[in-house]
Amino acid sequence: MDRQGSYDLRVALVVKSAFDAVILPEFGRRSQALPTITWAPTTVIIRDIQDGARPDGVIITDPALNGLAAEALVSREHVVPLVESRIAIGVRAGEPHPDLSTIECLKAVLLGSRAVAYSTGGQSGLHFAPLLETLGIAGKVNARAVRIPQGFSGEKLISGEADLAVQQVSELLAVPGVEIAGLLPEGAQKASFFAGAPLVGTAHGDDIRAFLDFLREPISREAFTRFGLTPR
Question: Model pTM greater than 0.85?
Fold first, then answer.
C-alpha cells in the first residue's frame, strides 16, 4: 500500500490472514491513511527495534509490548488489546485428521509423522520446541523436522516436505490448502495475547489509534474469529 498518509506498522504474522481477507480492504474503503505493514514474528520485530528501528506502531504480544512500555517506547494508555491465539496442528487438505485429544495421543502422532514443520522464531515455535523436550521426544521428532526461522509452516505441507505443521491457528489458515487437524490438547497448549500501540514520538499517532480502533469494530472482530482468533 502506498497511499498518501501511509505509516509504518510492524505486525505479528498471527493476524495476517484476517487482515488480507477482510480488514485491510475494508479499512481502505474508509480511510486514505493506511498502514504500510512489515510482517514478522514478534521476536524479530523486537530485535529490529532494539537495533534502532522506529516504526510508527506495532501489533505484537502483550509481554513484548510491556517491555517496550518499560523502555518508554510505547505509552501504556495507548495499548489496545486485540486477539488471543492458540496453537494447532495442520495437515494438507484432504489428509486424515489425527487424534489430538490427549497428550499421549499428541506424542503418538508426532512420533508417527514423516516430518513435522514448525517455525523457530514465532510464538508457536518458542512454545513447541521446549514442549518436545518436556514430552521426551525432541530428539526423535527433530531428527526429521522441518524447522524454519519465520514464516508459515503450512507451506511445507503444500511443498510435500512435511506431513504435519505446528503453528497458531490463524497462521495455518493463511496457507491455502491447509486444514486444521486440531488444537494442541490441554496440558500442551499455550494461549498468546496480542495488542497494538503507536510508538512514542510518531507523527502518525492519531492514524494508528484510528486503525487500532477499527480493529475493535464488529467487522474486524468477525474476521479475527473467522480465522481462528478470539477477539479480546
Answer: yes
